């Protein structure tokens, strides 16, 4: 199926790109809002779709083979001010994902298969706890005992009754924070409004029997996690890696967690296993509590007060897992199945498993064999990389139901785009977000990839989570927890955020959209050595500082500084073969329009450029027929082509991913002719780029560069 095409097969799928993008545009065009739309991001959607179509048309005009530098795009965006900074992030994987054939362009949602046959089997209302299934360790000791309540983190977190005064404090008072250093995670920042400087200490050793894992996780986890364990692990800690132990120690206290050092090559899978264990443990405990109370209610005398059995939310979904690609969802479901199967003889019943593998799996033969990409690229874009999906998962004792209707699901696994198209926008008739009302654990994995897709989808989701539902959806209000009835769900929601990097937009979500009463934990390590140490070509690096008054003026100041101070130095023909690396599509459109107006000899490549246009631009640039090449970061993220012929390099802004800095610089060694001494690299930065700067040059140099107002010249000779 077309949506399973691998992004690394860019060379072979370009012929279908126009059709794929047009389907995507139809989808985006349906996300229109009414005039009284409450959010700017929603109002900008139609503009984005229009601008994207204009851009696609203009890139298509390159097919005529015109060779004029800035003349080839007759229908380009006429005014750069129409673009927004996140403008074309809306087409995160436009040309390579393939169109999802199940989309209905008339209303922009997926015509989904949902499993309606197994509704009664997986109903929480009509089922009871099986005797042999037991509960977690706490239940064995007597689930109602005060000791069990005080020790089991799940009960401790969900059964705490907040007072109105505490809720008011959380919404008005600033958080207090404290620092701590853990052996594996490093520097941690604990922040909370209610818990005054209650710093958590890492468990040096973890006994799996003391974690209050629900049956069967206590026995299955060590086997499932065995692949990550080495002989170095202590006999007393046989089931967790050092990283997993410290992460799970935080997760199990139900604090919010931000971990910005996820690496698809090294620790990505062990992190995925750790949060899957936590999510499944939470769901099994919550469902066991409901089933146990069902039995108690069935056995009690008529007329007895039922207020003791408040054990659920306003809607059933408890865990929302946001991941970028279908392959990620596939791996998560496989982990769940492994954790639920006690032995090879006791397989669990998984409904619709074959269909799931067909829609979320990938065909290894589809991948072209001769494409060489960096290891991190291969790790991120492995398997089925379609980014438009959502699936409900229901778990009941020894069975799992895939494609469960959302209101009958315990866990929802989705991409940001999959969520965006069902949540919809203000004024749309067909939209739904009631199922997000009682989410108790939100997991956002690989958050950095959403910066390359469309970050506004993440913000849109955060605005619609834990709101009071518009419909009752058949809930028994006598069983609903008071925290949900009081609309305090967001104060109990745990958010786990994993990213490959620190970024202001990701930080903002963690700081402004996480309200957990227990508090937040953020890993805040500073890079001692930057990615500049991985530049292998001898190259002078000139860092030119912009003086800006405030954050809002950075974009305009950078553009003016570039055309007044930087560009004039490169207009001379001797400064040919100049690549300009532009992270923001907004800036790219603005620069492209300026270059055309000034009739500069340039070509350009962005994430919407078709294969023929890319080949032509690369050829013109290599031969020196075009002096400048405008090059977007998102093109590099999705394609990773080596651009040959670079002699002069300008980073219009520091790259989002620090290793892109050394990757782009090292492209110069692919240039056979040309003298090393003539190569140059210029970087524009401001005081607001501290995080990105530190990731490139290291923390010590960053401190010096931010204190000094002079340009900084660095000469790097290989691995130094």
Automatic annotation (TrEMBL):
One of its GO terms (molecular function) is rRNA binding. Residues 254-521 form the UTP25 NTP hydrolase-like domain. It is found in: Nucleus, Nucleolus. Interacts with CAPN3; the interaction is required for CAPN3 translocation to the nucleolus. Belongs to the UTP25 family. Residues 1-156, 292-311 are annotated as: Disordered. The keyword Lipoprotein does not apply. The gene is Diexf. Residues 531-715 form the UTP25 C-terminal domain. This is U3 small nucleolar RNA-associated protein 25 homolog. Coiled coil: none annotated. Keywords: Developmental protein, Nucleus, Phosphoprotein. InterPro entries: P-loop_NTPase, UTP25, UTP25_C, UTP25_NTPase-like. Residues 1-10, 100-121, 296-311 have a biased composition (Basic and acidic residues). It comes from the Eukaryota. SUPFAM superfamilies: P-loop containing nucleoside triphosphate hydrolases (SSF52540). Component of the ribosomal small subunit processome for the biogenesis of ribosomes, functions in pre-ribosomal RNA (pre-rRNA) processing. Essential for embryonic development in part through the regulation of p53 pathway. Controls the expansion growth of digestive organs and liver. Also involved in the sympathetic neuronal development. Mediates, with CAPN3, the proteasome-independent degradation of p53/TP53. GO terms for biological process: maturation of SSU-rRNA from tricistronic rRNA transcript (SSU-rRNA, 5.8S rRNA, LSU-rRNA). GO terms for cellular component: small-subunit processome.
């Amino acid at each position: 199926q077309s949506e399973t095409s691998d992004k690394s097969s860019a060379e072979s799928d370009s012929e279908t790109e126009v059709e794929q993008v047009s389907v995507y545009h139809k989808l985006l065009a349906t996300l229109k809002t009414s005039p009284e739309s409450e959010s700017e991001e929603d109002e900008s959607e139609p503009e984005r779709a229009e601008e994207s179509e204009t851009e696609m048309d203009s890139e298509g005009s390159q097919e005529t083979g015109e060779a004029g530098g800035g003349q080839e795009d007759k229908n380009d965006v006429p005014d750069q001010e129409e673009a927004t900074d996140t403008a074309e992030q809306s087409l995160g994987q436009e040309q390579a994902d393939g169109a999802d054939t199940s989309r209905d362009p008339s209303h922009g949602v997926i015509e989904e298969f949902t499993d309606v046959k197994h509704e009664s089997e997986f109903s929480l209302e009509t089922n009871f706890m099986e005797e042999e299934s037991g509960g977690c360790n706490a239940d064995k000791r007597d689930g109602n005992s005060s000791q069990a309540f005080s020790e089991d983190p799940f009960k401790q977190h969900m059964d705490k009754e907040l007072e109105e005064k505490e809720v008011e404090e959380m919404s008005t008072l600033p958080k207090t924070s404290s620092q701590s250093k853990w052996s594996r995670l490093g520097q941690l920042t604990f922040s909370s409004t209610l818990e005054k400087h209650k710093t958590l200490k890492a468990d040096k050793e973890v006994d799996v029997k003391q974690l209050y894992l629900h049956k069967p996780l206590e026995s299955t986890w060590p086997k499932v996690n065995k692949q990550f364990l080495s002989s170095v692990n202590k006999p007393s800690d046989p089931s967790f890696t050092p990283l997993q132990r410290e992460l799970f120690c935080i997760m199990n206290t139900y604090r919010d967690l931000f971990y910005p050092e996820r690496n698809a090559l090294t620790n990505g899978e062990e992190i995925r296993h750790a949060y899957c264990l936590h999510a499944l443990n939470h769901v099994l405990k919550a469902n066991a509590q409901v089933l146990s109370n069902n039995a108690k209610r069935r056995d009690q005398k008529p007329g007895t007060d039922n207020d003791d059995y408040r054990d659920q939310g306003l809607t059933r979904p408890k865990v929302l897992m946001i991941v970028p690609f279908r392959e990620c969802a596939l791996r998560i479901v496989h982990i769940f199945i492994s954790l639920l199967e006690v032995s090879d003889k006791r397989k669990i019943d998984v409904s619709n498993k074959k269909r799931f593998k067909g829609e979320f799996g990938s065909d290894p033969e589809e991948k072209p064999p001769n494409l060489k990409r960096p290891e991190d690229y291969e790790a991120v874009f492995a398997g089925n990389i379609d980014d438009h999906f959502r699936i409900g998962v229901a778990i009941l004792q020894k069975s799992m139901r895939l494609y469960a209707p959302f209101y009958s699901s315990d866990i929802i696994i989705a991409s940001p785009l999959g969520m965006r198209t069902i949540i919809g926008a203000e004024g749309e008739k067909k939209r739904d977000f009631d199922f997000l009302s009682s989410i108790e654990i939100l997991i956002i994995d690989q958050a950095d990839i959403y910066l390359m897709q469309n970050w506004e989808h993440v913000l849109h989701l955060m605005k619609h989570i834990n709101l009071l539902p518009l419909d009752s959806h058949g809930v028994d209000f006598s069983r609903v927890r008071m925290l949900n009835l009081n609309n305090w769900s967001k104060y109990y929601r745990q958010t786990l955020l994993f990213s490959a990097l620190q970024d202001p937009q990701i930080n903002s979500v963690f700081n402004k959209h996480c309200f957990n009463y227990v508090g937040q934990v953020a890993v805040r390590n500073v890079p001692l050595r930057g990615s500049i140490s991985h530049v292998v070509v001898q190259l002078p690096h000139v860092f030119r500082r912009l003086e800006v008054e405030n954050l809002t003026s950075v974009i305009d100041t950078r553009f003016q500084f570039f055309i007044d101070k930087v560009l004039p130095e490169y207009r001379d023909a001797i400064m040919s073969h100049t690549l300009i690396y532009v992270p923001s599509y907004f800036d790219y459109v603005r620069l492209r329009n300026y270059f055309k107006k000034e009739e500069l000899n340039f070509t350009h490549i962005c994430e919407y450029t078709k294969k023929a246009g890319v080949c032509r631009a690369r050829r013109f640039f290599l031969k020196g027929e075009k002096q400048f090449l405008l090059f977007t970061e998102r093109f590099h993220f999705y394609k990773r082509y080596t651009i040959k012929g670079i002699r002069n390099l300008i980073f219009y802004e520091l790259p989002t991913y620090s290793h892109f800095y050394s990757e782009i610089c090292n492209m110069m060694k692919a240039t056979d002719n040309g003298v090393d001494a003539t190569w140059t690299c210029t970087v524009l930065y401001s005081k607001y780029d501290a995080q990105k700067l530190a990731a490139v040059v290291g923390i010590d140099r960053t401190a010096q560069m931010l204190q000094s107002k002079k340009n900084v010249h660095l000469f790097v000779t290989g691995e130094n």
